[in-house]
Amino acid sequence: LSKPQWIEYVLMAATMVIIDMIVMGGYTGLSAKVLRLLKSPKQQKVMNRTFAVLFSCAAGLLSLVHQ
């Protein structure tokens, strides 16, 4: 308890920044792949309908759970 805490804060901040950069790099890589798959209007339509069904299912499950 007698040692300065700023060193621990710097280490925690650096760790959080490094982990965040790794995670965001992964999201960037995945989004680049997804964008390549969604070039045509037909592919975009299929994706929109798929997510509409998934969100509808999630809403239905939530309404069952909260009753």
Descriptive key words:
single chain, 67 residues, 2 helices
What does this structure look like?
This protein is mostly helical and 67 residues long. It contains 2 helices and no strands. The chain has helices at 6-37, 41-65. The longest helix is centred in the N-terminal third of the chain and has 32 residues, at 6-37.
Q: How are the secondary structure elements laid out?
A:
Layout: H1 6-37, H2 41-65
Helix-strand makeup class: mainly alpha
Number of helices: 2
The oligomeric state is: single chain
Order of helices and strands: HH
What does the overall shape look like?
Answer: flat
Number of strands: 0
Gyration radius over CA: 21 Å
Mean pLDDT: 93
Largest sheet at a glance?
none
What is the helical fraction, as a range of percent?
A: over 70%
